[in-house]
Amino acid sequence: MSDKIPKGLYGIVFPISTENFVDSAKMMIDKGAGIIQYRDKLIDDSSFLHNAEKIKQVCEDSNALFIVNDRARIAEELDTNVHLGSKDNSPILLRRSGFNNIIGYTIDNYDSFNNSIKEGILSLSDYLGTGPVFFTTMKPDKKPIGLEEVGKIIRESLLPAYVIGGIKEKNIENILSLEPAGVAIMSYNFCNNNIINKINKHYRR
């Protein structure tokens, strides 16, 4: 299913106090995002499902790929796609349950990349999310992977690899030179048009 995953700008709807989820998703799609992931670690499943249904509809109306972060049961209920972290429900277990939609999987570093291959996790996934490339306040406890290690993962992966974490105007050119399948940007960073325009221009070559 990797051929169904758009390359380029990967938008993540992330909750902040002034953000409207639906408007945020629409804004990111208007600015070129072909993938929209909805992420919220704090709210209950019922509220998450309510929001996810609305964002999914926006994506379907715009022909963008919708992805639920972490909550596999809700992805199954909505018959949509899911992105799993390394500590979440394994793609192996999810495929055994009959899940047939797209699964993205987080790779924290080169060691976890190799271990995931050996354990058969990546053979049941459709794309990788790798990072944080640089330090990010979103995950201050996570050690940045760095450009060299991310580059090795991208080159050796048989799956499309999307990068995330600490991406700024000063480092976006270095990120793009690694030729990832795409670059994931949080919704509140879409206001930086210089980064967004550079990413879109790169994938329109």
How would you portray this structure in words?
With 205 residues, this protein is of the alpha/beta class. The chain has 8 helices and 8 strands, in the order E-H-E-H-E-H-E-H-E-H-E-H-E-H-E-H. It has helices at residues 21-30, 45-62, 72-78, 91-96, 110-118, 147-156, 172-177, 193-203; strands at 8-13, 35-38, 65-69, 81-84, 103-107, 127-130, 161-163, 182-186. Helix 6 links the parallel strand 6 and strand 7 (161-163). The protein starts with 7 loop residues before the first strand and ends with a helix.
Secondary structure topology:
Layout: E1 8-13, H1 21-30, E2 35-38, H2 45-62, E3 65-69, H3 72-78, E4 81-84, H4 91-96, E5 103-107, H5 110-118, E6 127-130, H6 147-156, E7 161-163, H7 172-177, E8 182-186, H8 193-203
Parallel strand pairs: 1-2, 1-8, 2-3, 3-4, 4-5, 5-6, 6-7, 7-8
Helix pairs in contact: 1-2
